[in-house]
Amino acid sequence: MKQLISLVLRYIPRPILQRISPYGMKIMALFYRGDNVVCPVCNNHFREFLPYGRMPARPNALCPDCLSLERHRLMYLYLQRNTNFFRDNLKVLHVAPEHCFIDRFEKQKNLDYITADIESPLAKVKMDIHQIPFPDNTFDVAFCNHVMEHVDDDIKASSELYRVLKPGGWAIIQSPIDYSRTTTYEDPSITDPREREKHFWQSDHLRLFGQDYPERLAKGGFTVKEDRFVMEMPKEEVAKFALPGGEIIYFCKK
Fold first, then answer.
1. Phi, psi (5° rounding) for residue 166?
2. Quick one: 143 and 165 in the same domain?
3. DSSP code at position 229
4. Would you tell me which of 140, 142, 173, 179 could form a disulfide with 93, CB atoms 3.0–4.6 Å apart?
């Protein structure tokens, strides 16, 4: 199963996967029912989550019902426990929206929820994050997860997110980070896809962020809080929800 998922992720284009994977996963969910893990996004219980990833697939990662990954489950719990996201009336921009969130957030009556992406068939607005097609001070909240490693200019993209947020607005902007690196690693001279995968964790990543990631977000204008939310949770909860135990949440305030 791990090898099959790794091959699918590596060779099937993301837009196609986004359309077809929910149907196959619904069937898989029937075989994974149990009581060992719980997905806080869809509230379903399983004996374990599916493996997911490329180098190699991570065990116990993908919810077969809503397709949440470890980072999605962490973000959902963070929104529930540490923000006003489920309470206040908010205008939200979600860049590169994740399948597990779209329907749920669209149904929330307190949200004016807009999805956007340059290529995803799931998003309502087609846009380049370097030139967000909304006026200054439009949104209360922005989500932009696992995007900054793909864009040509991550600091310009950060400044655009900052621009369209209202004063006092906030964003969650997550990316893969190599915490063993002090600074972000970029090398456009590496063009072979296999070599780029070795150096940057995926062939389509343009950089591998290091410990300076919050500093790069701050160059866009944000005040960045490095929230160690998951590290303060009981270990039993981290295991029950299969969360990424070492992930820092980058809470960006305007």
1. -70, 155
2. yes
3. G
4. 142
Number of structural domains (the chain) is 2
Only one residue has tokens 């963070």, namely 78
How far is 215 from 211, CA to CA, in rounded Å? 8
CA torsion through residues 87, 91, 97, 102, sign: positive
Residue 123 sits at the vertex; the CA angle it makes with 55 and 82, to the nearest 5 degrees, is: 75
Residue 74 maps to a domain: no
Q: Is this model's pTM higher than 0.85 or not?
A: yes
Q: Which domain holds residue 126?
A: 79-253
User: Helices 70-82 and 99-107: crossing angle, nearest 10°?
Assistant: 30
Question: Taking the CA of residue 181 as centre, how many other CA atoms within 13 Å lie in the half-sphere pointing to its CB?
Answer: 15
Q: Which long-range contacts (CB under 8 A, 24 or more apart) does 181-186 make?
A: 181/208, 181/209, 181/210, 181/211, 182/210, 182/211, 182/212, 183/210, 183/211, 183/212, 184/208, 184/209, 184/210, 184/212, 184/213, 184/216, 185/210
